[in-house]
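User: Hi! I'm working on a homework problem where we have to compare a predicted structure to a textbook description. Could you give me the structure for the chain below?
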Amino acid sequence: MKRATMASFSAKPSKRYNVRSISLPVRSHPSTLRTEEELNKLKAWEATTTTSEAKADSICKGLGGLKDLYICIEDLLQLPMTQQALALHQNERWVEELLDGSVNYLDVCCNTRDTILAMKESVRDLQSALRRRKVGGDSSLEDNLSSYTCIRKKTKKEILQLVASLKQMDHKHEAFPLDLDNHLAAVVRVLREASLITSSVFQSLVSFLSTPVLKPRPSRWSLVSILVQKGVLKCENNQHKSMNELENVDIAIGNVLVNQASEDIEAEKIQSAQRRLKVLDSSMEGLENGLEGLFRLLIRTRVSLLNILSH
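Assistant: Happy to help. Predicted structure tokens:
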């Protein structure tokens, strides 16, 4: 019976997971079942989210799903049967794996939050520069854009290290086979599945933050400028559905920097850039809030594990 239950868990899902129940033991505790439900919601989210093309609003939903998941995990860890079972196995290597994972995700949370704060500040500087340009023709936009671009490029370099760390954690989860009683096997598998889906959400987040900067070159933007001036292409209708919030800002700012525009067209392009920067600012705020809430829950999970294993 134990072997049949263990085999029901996916060792290496396609795309990372199959969208299905993890088939926990028939008599699983309600806390385990609630955790399973949240996991399956996140797997459904993942199935419709492409890591390399994720947008901020989708990632915010993923972070919200993780918060719901870790609330359920906290309830699961507070069960006496869970605490007793984990305490009996506190010297196992897979216990160390769980603790290491909790520390690594806290580090990723902190690093990505700092990145978002820097980008959000730069976005707001761009918004201010656009307002000044609209009112008095201020020329500081180029300087602010240069600063914003430098932050984006620096972010991309830092993100590469985070991605390597996340992928290393994923491989580590496959290294330790389990041979435990039904309840503890279910708990540990849930924690591992939670770690893998956490890594997936974070990879979508860091992929979004490391979006390459679309540089405004005359050859790239001249056609857009001509179409806008002719009234063929309206600024708000130029939002490409396949582009994320960062790319839309790049295009809008690039349009502002293109010359050969009348005053009316210039004002329209500035308004479009302001709108897209506002959307990006709101997106960054949502990501920051999502990370803050998740960070607190990850700390609670780690503290709970440490308390269980110290008894």
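For your comparison, note the following. The chain has ten helices and no strands. The radius of gyration is 24 Å. Good luck with the assignment!
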